[in-house]
Design brief:
- The protein has 196 residues and is α/β, with parallel strands linked by helices.
- The protein is 37% helix and 15% strand.
- The protein is built from 5 helices and 8 strands, in the order E-E-E-H-E-H-E-E-E-E-H-H-H.
- Strand 2 and strand 3 form a beta hairpin.
- Helix 1 packs parallel to helix 2.
- It is globular and about 50 Å long.
């Protein structure tokens, strides 16, 4: 069994019931609890490479420290529990994983596919209408990237976007759908910045 996971790292603490709680610890603990059951242990744990992301705080220095601290703490906990449970860990490229339709027949990539925590495929060429939670969509796409020979962990995000668009164009051609105008072709390339 291979699972795909996607982490939302929260780096702050808050008071609850009179004692301090750490959301990062509880998030990791909830995930790692499933690794303790022998029947639930996966062969491989797939995680996304989030090393390029930075935290959001008023000071860049604080953001960098907090962000790297949370990632390192999660990575360390996952590594220890995976080792104890006999699971392997594989890190894959996270670029556009929550903006790409996970339907193998579609694969449409666009920032409008994602609205907060919800995903809805806005493919303008045929009605895909795939819907789901963004974390689930990202996990499905990360699982597909394990075996992807074109997109590896260190592929730049612009190159990932180009590869995903070329795959979608091949799907268009296989369905005998022609791009009539430049406006239609521009729909595939509306964004220039990296967003997962």
């Amino acid at each position: 069994m291979v699972i795909g996971i996607s982490f939302l790292v929260v780096v702050f603490s808050y008071r609850h019931s009179g004692r301090e709680s750490h959301p990062t610890r509880s998030l990791t603990a909830n995930f790692l609890a499933c690794l303790q059951l022998p029947s639930q242990r996966p062969r491989e744990i797939i995680i996304e490479d989030l090393s390029h992301l930075q935290g959001k705080a008023r000071s860049k220095k604080i953001s960098r420290l907090c962000s790297s601290w949370a990632r390192n703490e999660n990575q360390e906990r996952i590594t220890v529990h995976a080792y104890v449970g006999g699971s392997g860990i594989k890190t894959v490229n996270a670029a556009y994983s929550s903006q790409t339709c996970p339907d193998p027949g579609c694969g449409y990539v666009h920032r409008d596919n994602r609205h907060g925590d919800m995903f809805h495929c806005r493919n303008p060429y045929w009605e895909c209408n795939w819907q789901g939670y963004v974390d689930h969509v990202a996990a499905m796409n990360l699982k597909l990237r394990i075996e992807d020979h074109e997109i590896n962990r260190f592929t730049p995000y612009r190159e990932v976007k180009k590869i995903l668009e070329e795959r979608f164009l091949r799907r268009l051609e296989s369905r005998n759908i022609q791009l009539d105008t430049k406006a239609s072709a521009q729909r595939l390339r509306p964004q220039a910045n990296h967003s997962c």
